[in-house]
């Protein structure tokens, strides 16, 4: 199953759980340009998250290889990058990257990747290195 | 197409609420409380902990970059052999002109390979910097001597064995059985520590012992090797 279908199916399955959930198509549109790069990773569970709290126009959070992956869309990604620092706060490891108007935050909140090898593989896939 | 843009994270040891966020750039040692190993994350990233040994890092653009020898922590990590002092070329702000220098004498490792440049010569499996030194080289060397002292203890790292003479143009300190000795450049000699001066071309065959760390699960080792200088 492709990452896009996984995202879509999970979002559809979670409809009605949260008051602020964006339409599934919005979440899929938001995350697909990012998750489509992660062909070698296990991507799962993207749902909308409160964008206003991060000053973003849209946000979604999911999981990739056990790491939390938050994707937000900003009018000014430089501003978004600063706002998204709060997303990685408290995680043992974290990384922020900007791709166009989207700001991506990876966080090892569950301490599953102490040496950062999984996070490095995800970042390599996202950065195309 | 979305183009990746690496963020220059702007706050080094900022706190968000009660949570510390420390910025790093590139692979670095983990705190001993987590593991005796390296963090493998390339590029900018953050952790919830400060560097355990700041001596082995440089700090600029509000992030920490490891400039030590990763084999102290993880022998299976990517590594490149260097010989002697050289510019640090893997910091976030490196753009061809060095802002930091590695002052580790003799053969050692770094995670990253040097950039393609005529100032770098690969010989005997090691990289030697033969370019000009920055004007601040001597000034900072006194302060940075502590990192050289850190690696001067034989138990810290397993020194790579380099068995060739330095390339033309290289200036530095060579390691030999009779102690740290001369540095031979193209007519330039720089003696850093009192030691017998070996003049090339001579052949010195030496045999000496090293005590060194092994990764977890391995006994401490003791080995001998020969070095031959042509």
Concise overview:
The complex is a heterodimer of chains A (129) and B (230). Chain A is an alpha+beta fold and 129 residues long. Chain A has 5 helices and 5 strands.
Folded structure, characterized:
- By secondary structure, chain A is α+β, with helices and mostly antiparallel strands.
- Chain A has a single domain (22-127), classed as 2-Layer Sandwich (Phosphorylase Kinase, domain 1), CATH 3.30.200.
- Chain A has five helices and five strands; from the N terminus they run H-H-E-E-E-H-H-E-E-H.
- Chain A has helices at residues 3-13, 24-35, 77-83, 85-88, 117-127; strands at 43-48, 58-64, 67-73, 93-99, 102-107.
- Chain A has a five-stranded antiparallel β-sheet with strand order 1-2-3-5-4, with helices on both faces.
- Chain A is globular.
- Chain B is mainly β.
- Chain B is built from one helix and 18 strands.
- Chain B has one helix at 137-152, and strands spanning 4-6, 13-16, 19-25, 28-29, 38-39, 44-47, 57-60, 63-66, 80-83, 86-87, 101-102, 107-110, 120-123, 126-129, 175-176, 179-180, 204-212, 221-229.
- In chain B, the strands form seven sheets. In chain B, strands 12-9-14-13 form a four-stranded mixed β-sheet, with no helix packed on it.
- Chain B is globular and about 50 Å long.
- Mean pLDDT of chain B is 75; it is low at 1-13 and 186-230.
- At the A-B interface, helix 3, helix 4, strand 4 and helix 5 of A face strand 1, strand 5 and strand 6 of B.
